[in-house]
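Continuing the series of single-chain predictions for the mutant panel. This is the parent chain; the variants come on the following pages.
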Amino acid sequence: MTTATISSTTSRLGEIARSLADRSEEWLHRVRLSADGRWYERLHHDDDHEVWLISWLPGQSTGFHDHGDSEGAFTVVLGSLEERAPGRTRTVDSGDSWAFGPDYVHDVRNVTDAPAVSVHVYSPPLSTMRRFEETPDGLVEVAVEQTEDW
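Parent structure:
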């Protein structure tokens, strides 16, 4: 697992994401593909953390965003995703994980010609996400989403 910010919480979230990815037979039947946008379903939610299952068709992207005060981790279960953060781009292949601390800004997207599936874990559960646009001068905050927005 590669991490943007290492903490005990971040490491634990990565372990949860990898464990769920290793047991995909328990939830893979729930995955849907949608040409209208990324499909997602929350698999678990408690006071400590939440787990999201996300499917990605070719070309689908999150756009640049953060996760507010939440730390997070994700594991790609099927396919491959590209993760862009300011100043770097990386490929996250099936079986690979990425973890990050609060206020980490990134864009996750499927740049391949095949669908992808990933598991995402956040702690504390998401309450806000900020959206950013990429400009020649860097990222500019354009919106703040609250839990009820998704």
